Amino acid sequence: MQIAMYEQKQLSLHDEFPKFTSREVAIDQIKKRGQKRAYTCPFCEEFFTLRAGSTNEPHFAHIRGKSCLMSQAYEQYEKQIKRESSNHSIIRDVIFDDLSTQRKYKPDLKVEHGYQAKVKESWKLVPDIVVQKGSKEFGISILTNVHQRGD
After folding, report:
1. What's the pTM?
2. Distance from C-alpha of 41 to C-alpha of 10, rounded to nearest angstrom
3. Contact predicate 6/38, CB 8 Å
4. Fewer CB under 10 Å: which end of the chain, C or N?
């Protein structure tokens, strides 16, 4: 996973690496913090460690045997949206915020991120947003990288 909690704030590995003089120094320092239990999962609050080897990109991971369903669903969702443009997250957040605001006026409206709403169902493809109004449920997927051929 590319995100973790550190000192009560969410951080991203992509933002952390430029803070160090080199990639190797960053990996070393982040691993040391992880050994001191400085990083936690943003979902279950279990401790994270940094895994950085020759085969995989550096990433945060639960200590062996402690992985949670929510982090697995989040990672699956992140892989799913990897090919989307940078506007994808902006559009998703605007729609999510607008729908969340409407909950004040419509108490039977429930709005969740797709990976959170469907965490126990292990879907292959997860919608960006899940909206439930009464007994009806809707999935909203934002597509920003559509090509005439192939999609």
Report:
1. 0.68
2. 9
3. yes
4. C
Answer whether 96's CB lies under 8 Å from 129's CB.
yes
- Residue 93 scores a pLDDT above 60: yes
Q: Residue 135 forms beta bridges with which residues?
A: none
Structure-block tokens of residue 37: 């239990």
For the segment 55-81, the average pLDDT, to the nearest whole number, is 82
From the number of C-beta atoms within 10 Å of its C-beta (0-12, 13-18, 19+), residue 127 rates as buried
Residue that the structure tokens 């999609």 belong to: 151
Q: What is the pLDDT of residue 150?
A: 53
Q: How many CB atoms lie within 10 A of CB 113?
A: 19
> Cα-flanking dihedrals φ and ψ of residue 4, to 5°?
-160, 165
CA-closest candidate to residue 126, choices 91, 81, 95: 81
Answer for the pair 103, 111: CB distance below 8 angstroms, yes or no. Answer: yes
CA angle 46, 48, 51 (to 5 degrees): 155
Q: Label residue 94 by pLDDT band (50, 70, 90).
A: very high
What are the residues facing 132 on neighbouring strands? 110, 137
